[in-house]
Each structure stands twice: as C-alpha cells, then as structure tokens.
Amino acid sequence: MMSFSNVGHFGDLLPNFLRARKRTFIDRLHWDLPHTEGMEFDQYDTPQCRWVAVHEYGEILGGFRLAPTTASCGGFSYMLRDAQRGMLGQIPRDVLFIEAPVDPRIVEASRLFIAEDVPASRRIQVQSVIMGQMVACTVQMGATHTIGIVPAVWSRWLRRMDLDAVPVGRKFRIDGVTSQAAIFNAAKFQAGLHAH
User: Domains plus CATH for the chain?
Assistant: First the structure.
C-alpha cells in the first residue's frame, strides 16, 4: 500500500500505476480526467489516500485507491460524498440511497481497474488479489467497511467471493457502463478468512 510518506520505497511504482490508470480510464474508457506526462490523477490523489498496485516485477496488472470518508482537501471530501453534494457532474447527485457517510470506520475505494493486457485466463486471479488487498488495506487503515462505485458485474463477483456487497445506491450509466454504489464489511470478511 503506497502513500505519500512511503512512496520513495517503491521506485517508479506510483508513476507506473498512474500511467496504467490513464491507459484504462482515459485511453480505453474515454473518461474526461486530468492527466499529465501520461499519468491520470484527480483531486482525490492526496496525502490522505492510499494507492494499491497489483504488479509483477513493476508491470501493473491492476489496482485501486482508498480514501477515508473523513477526508477533506480544498473543499473536496471523497468522490461519492462530493457527487451527492453536486460537485461532480459526471456522477449523479442521487448516487446513494443514504447520506454519504463521514466515518473513520469506512473508506472509499475508487479507480479500481484491471489492466487491459491481463489475459482472460488470469483475470479472475488478479481480481482475487485486488479484492484481498482491498480487504487487508481497509483493515490496515483502521476501517471496517469499504464503500465505492462498482460496475454491475463486479457486484455479482463480490458476492461470489462472499463479500456481501450491499447496494447503497441506484444503478446508473456512465460512458456505457452500468454501475452502482455498494458497501461491504471488510473486517467481517477478513475475520472469516482467519477462521478457516
């Protein structure tokens, strides 16, 4: 798990991770996002967030970003809450059925991706590593739950992993992808892993 304070230990991993995000979200999905020097970033890539890159020898296979729901920087908080507050035009204000939580026990996962060049035969393995890291890093950050927007296919896949993803918002479409906000109990899942 990379942060501003430890990124020096990871060599070029963070720039490579942000380049992989650009290839995924800007080049492939055509999202209108800030980028420079081939790297995608936004207002949520702050010292309050953590980045998790799944890689082999520096080649990025996928990853995600985690941010506390208590985050605050320059008028922004975290993506789902700011969408609900009408600050993000591309995500609908009614993205959540509930008021966006501000709770140290809940972190938001965003920018979750698997690199396009990961072969189909390895995608489930990479998904499993990503979700295992999401659970571990959520708990490492002192939280028990993860909230975020997932494509509809991911919510089904989370259930297959016994992650008990509970929808907390309506389905909506952005750039041809049907997505929905969901929350899952990372601490319960991790406790279940240790029980086996």
Answer: 7-143 (3.40.630.30)
